[in-house]
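Person: Please comment on this record:
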Amino acid sequence: MTAYGELDLIKESMNWGAERYFTKPFDVFEVRDAVQQLLKQ
């Protein structure tokens, strides 16, 4: 989670292995759902 939403930073994070990218303010339900999906993998 970050306050930065620049496209380059998002791409770099995904290249380093991030599964999801959330910017502030984030939706807690979206984060919860993403974590649940990742735990199912």
Q: What stands out?
A: The longest helix spans residues 28-40. The mean pLDDT is 89.
